[in-house]
UniProtKB/TrEMBL annotation, chains A, B:
Keywords for this protein: Hydrolase, Metal-binding
Residues covered by the Fumarylacetoacetase-like C-terminal domain: 68-239
Metal-binding recorded as keyword: yes
Name of the protein: Fumarylacetoacetate hydrolase family protein
Pfam families, per the entry: FAA_hydrolase
UniProt GO molecular function: acetylpyruvate hydrolase activity; metal ion binding
UniProt-listed SUPFAM superfamilies: FAH (SSF56529)
Length: 245, 245
């Protein structure tokens, strides 16, 4: 099932699920998830809905040291949830603070309160997967060891456009295209710490809740970007577009 | 003016301002602040209100390297907003991950959207000051350079109980007492980067908004704590209590 948040032509914001090419307004998907159910239909299909960011995280966790070039174990950091923007939003790359890097990542959307979740139970707290672009100015790292300055730019976390609830957590495909050319085809199977391990690690230290997201790290999926580039990141069929300006 | 969030005996949650020993339900203080006004009275004074955390931050910023023992310039990091709890909440100190440190800090509550705010204009985006206890397990720092593991414990950010809107930003007094004994009397004047400088630094990198908070760092105000300790932190007259369990 595809779940997102939409804004209708009269300005109403609601959760919705996909039905063909339309979106059907629905009840709170997190409440339904907590009861092991699918969200309830609450209106007629809408053909021309505007898709918002599919989640409103209170917490955005980034996983560090989770590429094939890094040694285990993983680490983590927090990114500002105010940086989250919908797919299609033009993002202004910060100038004069070193190069800009885009990172296509498999993004976990947490479905319910989660603390100390064992690896084997991780799937029970995951609503689904979506695509995220973890944009940053990594050269700030030399003076900013806590990933604050280089990660907080306006619009630096494009997310969505929807959550795929039936994605294969261990085998979610991740593709990055820049200006139409594929730069990498990889997936969650290439992460040293997989989706379930990331959930277990994060929740062993920090409580998460409905709508929070974990950016699982970059399996060779980080690339420099320039103004004018069009970045397309697809995760488990979820197609995220970021026009860089 | 003292502003907080209260829960009344029928369960209603609302903003409120202090009038003597009572709390008067009021309109949104951030909307009023944006118009240069005080929040409007919306009910009768309540004598037995339960005080909640006075703000619901989307972003909790910690300032690092801002004690007299640190060299400038300051740095920053993000703490999970899910760690925020009201004054009086018993906080379970995490066992088996090294010592626990409490840090009494002057806490800035942001009143409106703020980006690239010059030092001289910082007061125009600050709703007021409150007290915060930045609890952590600092020994995790050796394996956790981004302040993730050691800062995310349940209840690790006691806040409040109210926001003082008329506090002296440059001269806010900060007192820490542990089990009734004063361990330090200091204030924002002892911070190498003061309140206004912290706001300017943070907003030069990361957009903030209404209710977000900045913990300005520890001017000699960090101390080890043990289960059973009662920690009292007073900032500009705002008295925060943390029973450690």
């Amino acid at each position: 099932m595809r779940i997102s948040r939409i804004q209708t032509s009269d300005g109403t914001v609601t959760h919705a699920f996909a039905e063909g090419d339309s979106w059907v307004p629905c009840g709170d998907p997190y409440e339904a998830f907590a009861h092991g159910e699918e969200p309830t239909r609450q209106g007629e299909p809408i053909a021309d809905a505007t898709l918002l960011a599919p989640a409103e995280p209170r917490i955005v966790v980034g996983i560090a040291q989770n590429g094939p070039e890094h040694p285990s174990p993983v680490q983590a950091w927090l990114k500002s949830p105010r940086t989250v923007v919908p797919s299609g939003t033009p993002v202004e790359l910060r100038r004069n603070v070193g190069k800009v890097v885009i990172e296509g990542e498999v993004c976990v959307v947490i479905g319910r309160d989660a603390l100390d979740v064992p690896v084997e139970d991780a799937h029970t707290v995951i609503l689904g997967l979506t695509a995220v672009n973890d944009i940053s100015n990594p050269e700030r790292g030399s003076v900013d060891p806590r990933n604050f300055e280089g990660k907080g730019g306006v619009g630096y976390t494009p997310l969505g456009p929807w959550i795929e609830t039936s994605a294969d957590l261990a085998g979610a495909e991740l593709e990055v295209r820049i200006n139409g050319e594929r730069t990498v085809l990889t997936g969650s199977h290439e992460l040293p710490a997989g989706v379930a391990e990331c959930v277990a690690y994060v929740t062993s230290w920090v409580p998460l809740g409905p709508g929070d997201i974990i950016m699982t790290g970059a399996p060779k999926s980080a690339f420099p970007a320039e103004p004018g580039d069009l970045v397309e990141i697809t995760v488990a069929g979820v197609p995220l577009v970021t026009p860089c300006v």
